[in-house]
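[Discussion] Sanity-checking designs against the backbone

I'm trying to build intuition for which residues belong where. Below is a structure token string of 451 positions. I'd appreciate it if someone posts a full sequence so I can compare it with mine line by line.
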């Protein structure tokens, strides 16, 4: 679709937004949201006719791009048949979505509890774990994000937690593996794995194993930096959980449904959690939907005992119809296989080639269509291009980088000192190369701040 400029309409949309919309994670008087006129595939455009290649996939959720006609049609069809219905009933779209999801989850995760999004999925997974074990504490890592609701934000390991963390949520944070910025002074992936597992063992020992209900990990942490765990780490966590009777929860809200070149990131590691949370890519974000995939052992806890939790819109028919259509599209169009191919042949090699030419790129990390560039002032010291949680003048180098991307028609995902390359899973080779070319230009500005 070709964008048709209509600045007057854009001004009206912008005026209403600034008058009435309260935006998340923002100081309301300091933001200037772009008025979006439309989107299709890997692109969106504004009312001035500027078109952007979306290297953010929304918030890493439009896994099949914007406005896929088969999913749009499925939503329209479901709206004509049964727009909504209460969650206590069996509804075709809900049942079929649960079946298709369960077919693709690892191991015996056969029961699906539907939520409206990822944060609610995490909230309910932790509630299930606490009720299943009768224990209060949950362990999660620094450098993580699990959502903005009460428990989920306390589980989160980045600064968004701070304003809501009152220290009474039963959450204990520990360090996960991350060789490039290792807290364990490791020199190899094997050392990082061994030392991270020992650190977790020590944390459990000092917290008291019998007090710990769950360990929750993003299978591959997303917003915190796309840090693929070293070989053996997730299997090691699985063994520790089994030994102490701790529920192992994998958060696949961002990494799931093709993002990493597999249906779930857990598939890369051969590990089966007790609970798996999902959202985002399950229906490409077309209608809000999330959920928890539940193992047989945890589900059995609530066979004759009511589960004390629920949501008015759990398994909403429109959302579930969108999920059914999305999963079927991904299977028919081999979107998961395509994501793996693009990562192996275009994005991975292209990003590594950029790193060779740009001194501001300290490390390239990722798989599938899930990549991060760690930007630095100095490759030797690995000093980040901007300080941790920088804002204002301190964040100027990253702000200049982002502005250069947008000037060249690329909408970037920028977080702290990183930019993430996370286009739709069905991004074409030509589109991926277009994004790499725009990154190439913008990285030249970042290079100006290196030593």
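Best answer:
Here's mine. Compare freely.
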């Amino acid at each position: 679709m070709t964008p048709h400029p209509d600045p007057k309409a854009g001004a009206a949309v912008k005026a209403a937004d600034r008058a009435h919309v309260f935006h998340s994670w923002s100081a309301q008087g300091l933001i200037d949201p772009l008025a979006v006129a439309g989107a299709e595939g890997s692109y969106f455009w504004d009312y001035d006719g500027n078109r952007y290649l979306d290297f953010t996939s929304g918030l890493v959720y439009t896994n099949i791009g914007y406005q896929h006609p088969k999913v749009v049609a499925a939503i329209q069809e479901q709206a004509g048949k049964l727009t909504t219905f209460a969650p206590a009933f069996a509804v075709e779209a809900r049942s079929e979505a649960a079946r298709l999801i369960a077919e693709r989850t690892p191991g015996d995760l056969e029961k699906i509890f539907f939520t409206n999004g990822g944060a609610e999925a995490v909230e309910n997974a932790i509630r299930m774990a606490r009720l299943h074990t009768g224990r209060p504490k949950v362990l999660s890592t620094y450098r993580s994000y699990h959502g903005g609701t009460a428990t989920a934000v306390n589980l989160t390991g980045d600064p968004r937690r701070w304003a809501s963390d009152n220290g009474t949520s039963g959450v204990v944070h520990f360090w996960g593996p991350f060789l490039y910025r290792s807290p364990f002074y490791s020199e190899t992936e094997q050392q990082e794995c061994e030392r991270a597992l020992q650190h977790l063992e020590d944390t459990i020992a000092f917290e008291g194993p019998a007090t710990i209900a769950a360990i929750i990990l993003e299978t591959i942490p997303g917003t915190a930096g796309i840090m693929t765990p070293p070989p053996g780490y997730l299997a090691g966590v699985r063994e520790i959980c089994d030994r102490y009777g701790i529920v192992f929860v994998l958060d696949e809200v961002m990494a799931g449904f093709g993002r990493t070149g597999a249906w779930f990131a857990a598939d890369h590691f051969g590990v089966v959690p007790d609970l798996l949370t999902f959202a985002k890519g399950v229906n490409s974000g077309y209608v809000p939907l999330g959920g928890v995939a539940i193992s047989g052992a945890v589900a059995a806890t609530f066979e004759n005992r009511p589960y004390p939790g629920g949501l008015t819109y759990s398994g909403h028919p429109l959302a579930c119809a969108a999920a059914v259509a999305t999963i079927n599209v991904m299977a028919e169009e081999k979107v998961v296989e395509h994501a793996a191919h693009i990562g192996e042949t275009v994005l991975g090699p292209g990003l590594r080639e950029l790193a060779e030419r740009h001194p501001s790129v300290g490390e390239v990390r990722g798989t599938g269509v899930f990549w991060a560039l760690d930007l630095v002032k100095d490759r030797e010291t690995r000093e980040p291009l901007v300080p941790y949680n920088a804002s204002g003048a301190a964040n100027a180098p990253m702000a200049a980088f982002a502005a250069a991307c947008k000037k060249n028609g690329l909408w970037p995902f920028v977080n702290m000192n990183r930019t993430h390359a996370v286009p739709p899973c069905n991004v074409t080779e030509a589109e991926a190369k277009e994004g790499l070319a725009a990154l190439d230009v913008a990285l030249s500005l970042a290079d100006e701040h290196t030593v």
